[in-house]
Specification:
This protein is of the alpha+beta class and 392 residues long. 31% of the residues lie in helices and 23% in strands. It is built from 11 helices and 19 strands. β17 and β18 form a beta hairpin. Keywords: ATP-binding, Ligase, Magnesium, Metal-binding, Nucleotide-binding.
Length: 392
């Protein structure tokens, strides 16, 4: 059973002052819950250890996919395969941040991987800043969280330069390289998230600039902002699979830019391998005895309750929960039905006293660095609520 603490929510005006404008859902309900999930120190440490172990498995699985040319199995668009290979070969293509969605971890339930949001994960602003602000506004010790997301990502930006060395060497090695940050104009959440990441990189010591995606110029010589300044790094809050499908000319140009070493793109193209839910079928094949993995296959599982979901999809769209007798219990609609499907053994999310279900999410930046929760029903969609946590 999930236990929570009630708290005084931050008012909308204050939220907007700190840049959090998406505080109210389309039905008029508040997106941020007025409670905190209670988590013990031991449970937080278990989330940390599990997420680090799962990431290591993903690295091994990606190498396996590349070596065995399994891109089609994962639904990877053909026009990004060479880009993925190139970004995987060279350590300078550094994975900045990601988020694991899990089940369990509280009240004695085993931690299980649900999926990996490796390329453009949401809830960064909420996890890194908002749940800290909630504790502070309720006169609680803001250190009583598993949450060093801001510091961890800032340090991970430094590793673009130092790689596996100590980040204390950053100032010695840094030579003025610049990062251009981009999101699509008209989406407040994505713009605020991108600018938060920009601030993290600025804090790390980089020269940075923000430019809406549609204003960025790409050619064979590199990536430029509207002032025609060339940038060595480009961060885009725009999914790689959308670039491949919706912007094929851009995909070709970015491939050439990476092949010719004219710029480094963040998150790297290889995170599309991690992003594919098909990778969980590969993980289960390689690590069937892992305590963190649910049975997952590219074919429907026989005689068990399971979840069908597209290899690429967001916010629970195009997801089915199927009973052991093949009856569809519940499903959601969405734009991702044309993608290949995977089938994952069903597991219950932990519940509170009212029956609401909670899915823990753990951010990863070189290591696990922060916990938060989403609250909702059987399938957590875009109407699920953000819930912070407190260590007890």
């Amino acid at each position: 059973m999930i236990t929570t603490q009630k708290l005084n929510p931050i008012d909308d005006e204050t939220l907007e002052e700190i840049g959090f404008t998406w505080h109210t859902d389309t039905d008029g309900s508040k997106y941020v819950s007025d409670e905190l999930v209670e988590v013990t120190q031991e449970e937080a440490e278990a989330y940390y250890e599990a997420t680090n172990a799962i990431y290591d498995m993903y690295v091994e699985a990606a190498e396996y996919v590349i070596n065995n040319n399994l891109f089609f199995d994962l639904g990877i668009p053909f026009n990004l395969i060479e880009t993925i290979k190139k970004s995987w070969e060279n350590d300078v293509h550094w994975h900045i941040y990601s988020r694991f969605d899990l089940a369990g971890g509280v009240d004695g339930q085993d931690i299980k991987l649900i999926e990996f949001n490796a390329d453009t994960p949401t809830a960064l602003f909420e996890t890194a800043l908002l749940q800290w602000a909630i504790l502070k506004s309720n006169n609680m010790d803001e250190e009583h969280q598993f949450n060093n997301v801001y510091e961890a990502i800032s340090e991970n930006f430094k590793k673009l330069i130092t790689l596996f060395d100590d980040t204390d060497k950053f100032e010695e090695l840094y030579d003025g390289w610049k990062i251009l940050f981009s999101s699509v104009e008209g989406n407040d959440e994505e713009e605020a998230t991108t600018k938060l990441l920009q601030q993290m990189a600025t804090d790390a010591g980089f020269v940075t600039k923000f430019e809406f995606l549609q204003n960025v110029r790409f050619d064979e010589d590199g990536i430029y902002n509207t002032d025609d300044i060339n940038y060595e790094y480009w961060f885009k809050l725009y999914p790689w699979e959308d670039i491949a499908v919706d912007e094929p000319e851009l995909a070709t140009t970015l491939t050439n830019i990476i092949q010719n070493q004219k710029a480094i793109i963040l998150n790297p193209a290889y995170t599309l391998l991690f992003q594919s839910k098909g990778m969980m079928a590969v993980l289960y094949e390689l690590f069937p005895d892992s305590p963190y993995l649910l049975k997952t296959s590219f074919e429907p599982l026989k005689g068990v309750k399971q979840v069908e979901k597209p290899v690429f999809g967001r916010e629970g769209a195009n997801t089915k929960i199927i009973d052991a007798d093949d009856t569809v219990i519940t499903q959601t609609q969405g734009p991702y039905d044309n993608y290949k499907k995977v089938y994952q053994e069903y597991v219950e999310f932990p519940k509170d006293v009212h029956g609401a279900k909670y899915q823990p999410g753990v951010f990863f930046a070189y290591e696990a660095c922060g916990l938060s929760f989403r609250k909702g029903g059987n399938i957590l969609d875009n109407m699920s609520k953000f819930v912070g946590h407190v260590l007890v």
